[in-house]
Amino acid sequence: MQEQGDGTLTLAPGVRIPRAVVDISFSRSSGPGGQNVNKLSTRCQLRLKLADLPIDPEARLRLEALAGHLLVGDGELLIDSESGRSQSGNREECLAKLRMLLLKAIPRPKPRRKTKPSKGSVERRLRQKKTRAGIKRLRGGSE
User: Fold this and answer.
1) What is the CB neighbour count within 10 angstroms for residue 106?
2) Sign of torsion, CA 13 59 24 100?
3) Spans of all domains in the chain
């Protein structure tokens, strides 16, 4: 993720958005951590509407599927990070998570081509099954 001088963020190759469409807020982290947790607002939440992303509709559908529980409301992405001890670290982690989602969603998956197993592989599999069945048959005792 790179922040440009013109107020835009480069999230992935070919995906640049205005800084204003990304809402980043900070709050207090939860859990143990002593004074750092009790005093400092280091937890980062990144909110972004999927409609604001300049990606094709197919990629947007793939992104929705990948995002899963990160989607809140009507098409809004909510990414959370509280593992770091600094605001900047958690902010970068949120943007990195967004970037990884985009890098997975943007490429179009290759279509699957149906294939048939070769005659030789079918024969080998059946021969192996018969051999194995014979071994198991010999194990059986007459009790």
Assistant:
1) 20
2) negative
3) 2-105
* Confidence check: pLDDT of 139 > 80: yes
pTM of the model: 0.72
CATH topology classification for 2-105:
Double Stranded RNA Binding Domain (3.30.160)
Q: Name the pLDDT band for 114 (thresholds 50, 70, 90).
A: very high
CA 72 from centre of chain: 16
pLDDT in tens, 59-89: 999 999 998 899 988 889 999 988 888 888 9
Distance CA 41, CA 35 (A): 11
How many whole angstroms from its chain centre is CA 103?
Answer: 9
Strand 43-49 to 71-72 pairing: unpaired
Name the range with the highest mean pLDDT among 24-38, 72-86, 89-103, 115-129. Answer: 115-129
Question: How many C-alpha atoms does 13 have within 13 Å on its Cβ side?
Answer: 4
* CA separation, residue 65 to residues 77, 80, 97, 105 (Å): 12, 18, 15, 9
